[in-house]
Amino acid sequence: AGELFGEAADLAKLPALQAVTRELRTEVLQGADLPRRSPTLAALMSAIIPGSGQFYCGHTYDGLQAFLYVGAFSLATYAAYRYDHDINDNYVSTYAVGTVTAMFYAANVIGAYKVAGFHNLRQQEIFLDGVRVKVFEVDF
Question: CB–CB of 125/58 below 8 Å?
């Protein structure tokens, strides 16, 4: 894409258009270096430590929330297991609380994957907004 802007700058008859296309060529080449987050890495991080994938993407509140919810439900699952093991002997509450914990855990991992994708899209939109401003500010 940078080559196309270079060719357009060479073919442009108006000096203002030449200047803008040269600037755009430089910016388009810089677009490849946008700060990106890997969705797979974010999901893997959250699978290991709940919420860490969200922290990696800059979503501190979401990461803290995921860590606390998954941690609290894990503790509740363990408490239900101890109760069923020591007193109840049928493990119904363990299965029930464990299912809820598994849902929060899965949502945490999927959420980290999605947050990384949204981060990348947002970086791209911010970059393209700057390009749009330059294109539409040209005075002919």
Answer: no
Alpha carbon distance 117, 103 (integer Å): 21
Tell me how many degrees the CA angle 101-47-100 measures, rounded to the nearest 5: 10
pLDDT at residue 2 tops 80: no
Report the half-sphere exposure of 137 (CA within 13 A, side-chain side).
Answer: 11
Tell me the pTM: 0.75
Query: Is residue 69 within a helix (H) or strand (E), and if so which, with residue range?
Result: helix 60-83
What mean pLDDT do residues 108-136 have?
Answer: 87
Q: What is the DSSP letter of 43?
A: H
Among 112, 108, 123, which Cα is nearest to 59's? 112
Give the count of beta carbons closer than 10 Å to the beta carbon of residue 56: 20
Sign of CA dihedral 62, 63, 66, 69: negative
